[in-house]
Design brief:
mainly alpha, 233 residues, globular
């Protein structure tokens, strides 16, 4: 379905009642993500990362549509330079976001055990050995996930946990949340669209959200289309 063009103030853009629900949107966009080189696990972990990041008060479907607009869900996307000369990276192409150019099959959790002597016995098993994707919870410390012992001597284990996919989604979501807070932080279509203009260009022409001010003019319009379930444009 072709994209429609929206312009003018936020009131000219589609109402939230026209948006698809998150699971429908995710399923619509899964084929596009897989075409980028993402593995099935990468796609599943993007879903988990969105659900987790949304807890700060950003709609899951808005996070997803920013991801699709910025990177098509490509976990190995390159990071370009924005109009301010700053390198942006990751799934949401956010300033100071980590990125993993050209890399796929990324982990939800990476473990760096290089300082320790093997063999080590872990209880419970390492996340990579679990049949389902492991969702890192920032509310838990590493010690709550693992205990480690070498023979009968317990080692002081510090495990560096780096949630690669989650880190990209969280960085972009944090940035967008900051844009919402510059306005009234309301969960309304008007505030969401205006914050999208801020996310892309750093400022708003309130009379025309398709004034890109040097960034992508159609950015808000494109995401409005994506929120309605359209995938090309």
């Amino acid at each position: 379905m072709s994209f429609q063009t929206y312009s003018g103030p936020a009131s000219n853009f589609p109402a939230k009642s026209t948006w698809k629900d998150f699971d429908t949107l995710f399923n619509i966009n899964k084929p596009t993500m897989l075409q980028t080189g993402d593995s099935g696990q990468d796609v599943g972990r993007i879903y988990n990362a969105i659900v987790d990041a949304a807890k700060i008060g950003v709609e899951e479907r808005v996070i997803l549509c920013i991801i699709m607009q910025e990177s098509r869900g490509n976990v190995g996307v390159n990071g370009p330079t924005n109009q301010d000369g700053k390198v942006t990276g990751g799934l949401m192409q956010a300033v100071e976001s980590p990125g993993f150019p050209g890399q796929y099959n990324l982990s939800q959790v990476c473990l760096d055990l290089s300082p320790f002597i093997l063999p080590l016995v872990f209880s419970p098993p390492l996340p990579s050995l679990r049949p389902s994707p492991f969702l890192y919870s920032p509310q838990k410390t590493p010690s709550e996930y693992f205990t480690c012992k070498h023979s009968t001597v317990r080692l002081p284990v510090i495990i560096r946990i780096q949630a690669q996919i989650s880190s990209m989604v969280q960085a972009g979501t944090n940035h967008y949340k900051g844009d919402l807070k510059q306005l009234d932080d309301a969960d309304t279509a008007s505030t969401i669209y205006r914050a999208l203009r801020l996310y892309n260009s750093g400022s708003i022409n309130e009379s025309n959200l398709s004034d890109g001010k040097g960034a992508t003019p159609s950015y808000v319009s494109d995401i409005a289309n994506r929120l309605q379930g359209r995938t090309n444009g």
